[in-house]
Amino acid sequence: MSDNTIPEDQIKKWEKLSSSLALPEPWFRVRKDEVRLASGKVIDDYFVWESPTIATMVPFTEDGKFVLCEQYRYAVDKIMYQFPAGGVGKSESPEEAAKRELEEEAGYVAEAVEPLGDSAAYPTKMSGWHHLYLAKNVKPTGEKHEDENEPTRVVLKTPEELWAMINANEFQVADSLVAALLALKKLGY
Amino acid sequence: MSDNTIPEDQIKKWEKLSSSLALPEPWFRVRKDEVRLASGKVIDDYFVWESPTIATMVPFTEDGKFVLCEQYRYAVDKIMYQFPAGGVGKSESPEEAAKRELEEEAGYVAEAVEPLGDSAAYPTKMSGWHHLYLAKNVKPTGEKHEDENEPTRVVLKTPEELWAMINANEFQVADSLVAALLALKKLGY
Predict the structure, then answer these.
(1) What's the pTM?
(2) Angle of helix B159-167 relative to helix B174-187, nearest 10 degrees?
(3) Which of A23, A85, B108, B156 is a plausible cystine mate for A30, CB 3.0–4.6 Å?
């Protein structure tokens, strides 16, 4: 079902002609590429943030509560709720990273983990993907590995309370929000 | 309901001590800030991408179809589906930008527009917000303003077809996916 303004299979990829580092910082690496667009036009300064691959875990307890993290986010200068999430290390899979973040940030362990899908935060300019997971029947370990750079308050919410937060525009971190909505659907709420 | 690892209201903001431009490009402006964390620790190179404010429109036709755009996204090197979306200009509101993008990218016009909420794509490092809208009863104008840098194929999907795409991990742009899930819920699908 389509109005076929452009025939199927006619959206074409671009060609990378050359590439250099515009910002060679280990914590924020930006490439400047010379690219040939599908139209043939050449742009000599297309910037791409080589952003980290992220794993995000929706933790759901046996008694039916989501485990949320409240943290300060500097770039938007706001204290926000989200799920445990973080960068995937070189020696781990995204699923392993999601389980590790759950344990470090929230102090919970997962048994079975199921994938919810993948999302791209800003795919014109950011190369990294977010891999989203749901873990049912998570259990508290009694400890978490507090990162002094990222103090975290752990909060438990029922599905009804999480829906109320979403509808009140109080749960706004995009990858966590995608994961929340997919998990709520999957869990039947 | 909380396990109170940190008391409520105890997550603190950081203080910006100084700021300079690390990448002063008009299309990709990155700040380097010296910041004092809540712990008192000072970091002298915290990078923030001053990313654009984005408006995203979920268009829904009178006969019950979503209007999607298929476009190439260079940073992830993938042809992807999403809703009409783009940067908010200085002289327009986010809602006006959403209506403009709907007309330019998809060739549809909106009557009544309702907000779906706001999301932050990567709030530790990106300053920009995404403002999400739903427009019911959108109508084709018969023309769109093709941008040679961003060829767009417009595709119509029923709610059931959109759910199938989401479940098959074929609708992955984060802000569009958030907006899709909120719109599907609101419309009763």
Answers:
(1) 0.95
(2) 140
(3) A23
Of B122, B120, B30, B175, nearest to A31 by C-alpha is B30
Q: Please state the ipTM of this predicted complex.
A: 0.95
Could you give the CA distance from residue B116 to residue A161 in angstroms, rounded to a whole number?
18
> B28–A149: do the CB atoms touch at under 8 Å?
no
Which of B74, B107, B175 lies closest to A35 in CB terms? Answer: B74
User: Angle A140-A144-A150 (CA atoms, 0-180°, nearest 5)?
Assistant: 130
Q: List the domain boundaries for chain A.
A: 15-49, 54-187
Q: Looking at the partner chain, which of A75, A122, A172 has a beta carbon nearest the beta carbon of B118?
A: A172
Q: How many CB pairs under 8 A join A and B?
A: 246
**B54-187 homologous superfamily:** Nucleoside Triphosphate Pyrophosphohydrolase (3.90.79.10)
Distance in Å, alpha carbon of A180 to nearest chain B alpha carbon: 10
Q: Give tens-digit pLDDT for A5-29.
A: 566 667 999 999 999 999 999 989 9
Render pLDDT for A112-135 as a digit per residue (tens, 0 to 9). Answer: 899 999 999 999 999 999 999 999
Interface of A with B in 20-79 (CB under 8 A): 22-23, 25, 27-28, 30, 33, 35, 37-39, 41, 43, 45-49, 51, 65, 70-79
Judge whether residue B55 has pLDDT over 90: yes
